[in-house]
Amino acid sequence: MLTFYVLTLFPKIFISPLGESILNNAQKKGYLRVEIINIRDFTRNKYKQVDDYPYGGGAGMVMKADPIVSGIEWIKNRDSKAWTILFTPQGDKLCQDTLETLLDSHKSFILICGRYEGIDERIKNFVNQEISIGDYILCGGEAAAIVLIEALTRLVPGVLGGENSAKNESFFNSLLEYPQYTRPDKFRGIEVPRVLLSGNHSEINWWRRKQSLKRTLEKRPDLLRKANLNEDDIAFLEEIKLEFLKKEI
Questions:
Q1: DSSP 167-178
Q2: Which of 61, 92, 145, 208 has the maximal Cβ count within 10 Å?
Q3: pLDDT, mean of residues 145-164
């Protein structure tokens, strides 16, 4: 079972994401357990104050380290192997390789969701890893926590139902996913590629592989450096590159 302990100031944010669709089903089937923990429960004053003015001046308020560290220690007393993650712009960029490494190495996680202008820098002495989900600004770490929970959970065997469901999607093996179609086979004059209606699974698989390679080359060529390519893949990519050159000329 994959277990997440989420330290947050806003527990209600997680009600809907965890109560719907795949994450809800994963919890019911015993693949996932999520415990939402309010950081205010670990404050040491009657006002449950979790923030204060920044030393040196400046705008906004800074979250105090003490209640968060107390929360981490409380969780560690129950689950000593839990891997502690802090969401921060300075962290490792979240990608598919990171997800697979996390899943292979750990089964329980403590997720720290910051707010306001940030968290006292000393919190970093009590975490195992810092993660960023992208180069943009959020109001807090809750959205990032939901992203990580969903992205990791769907990699757990059995969660998606089909054995190869996760393996056929974008970023698996560093390639973008091939185009998908469903009924009707003709929509407003746009037809489904004939090969997908042929019933020839060998041709369908090769068409999908080529489309995946082509889409990756056109939209995210940086991913190809990490992809596991065979001789046919490389030959096809060279053909596409030649076509690009001809069009430019």
A1: GGSTTGGG-PPP
A2: 145
A3: 90
